[in-house]
Design goal:
- With 154 residues, the chain is of the alpha+beta class.
- It has 2 domains: 31 residues; 120 residues, Tick-borne Encephalitis virus Glycoprotein, domain 1 (Sandwich).
- Helices cover 17% and strands 42% of the residues.
- It is built from 1 helix and 9 strands.
- The strands form 2 sheets. A 5-stranded mixed β-sheet has the order 1-3-4-5-6, with no helix packed on it. It has a 4-stranded antiparallel β-sheet with strand order 2-9-8-7, with no helix packed on it.
- Strand 5 and strand 6 form a beta hairpin.
- It is flat.
- The protein starts with a helix and ends with a strand.
- The relative contact order is 0.17.
- This is Lipocalin-like domain-containing protein.
- Keywords: Membrane, Transmembrane, Transmembrane helix.
Length: 154
């Protein structure tokens, strides 16, 4: 079967478009690489790579963000200050782990830190804040967690 010029053009066009989409997908992934210790903001179901590349780096994925802190409205009285919980999954090569980072709005507030290991390497995940702070009139706002990951060398 032989293709005429128009058929060759259409076939070549579709091959060119398919290659273009594959190249865009790789570009989007490489933009999500940051250095260990860099502070990033992620919403639910977003991920980022910590390290130098995706082959030896650490993928950090936010599974859920549950914010049950007392709303900042002045007319709301809470018995408990509440907390914000961020469930994450960390991946590296063939190893993964799940854990929860927690923020409590108390006087002695400190960033929550969780130590974890993947492929015999130690890391610390640090939750710095969860935004926006709850408000009883704005319940449909998308939450985001500000986090960082440190690589621990012994």
């Amino acid at each position: 079967m032989y293709l005429n010029n128009f058929q060759s053009f259409v076939y070549g066009f579709f091959v060119f478009v398919a290659i273009g989409f594959m190249a865009c997908e790789k570009t989007n992934e490489t933009k999500k690489i940051v250095s260990f210790g860099e502070v990033v903001e992620l919403a639910k179901t977003e991920s980022i790579w910590f390290g130098s590349d995706t082959l030896i780096g650490l993928k950090f994925y936010v599974d859920t963000i549950n914010d049950i802190r007392c709303p900042e409205d002045e007319d709301i009285a809470c018995v408990w200050a509440g907390e914000a919980l961020v469930n994450v999954t960390a991946y590296q090569k063939s190893d993964s782990t799940n854990f929860t980072l927690k923020l409590s709005p108390t006087k002695n507030f400190k960033s929550d830190t969780v130590s974890f290991s993947l492929n015999n390497q130690s890391y610390k995940g640090i939750l710095l804040k969860v935004d926006p702070y709850p408000n009883s009139t704005k319940s449909t706002v998308t939450k985001s967690a500000t986090i960082t990951v440190l690589k621990i060398n012994f």
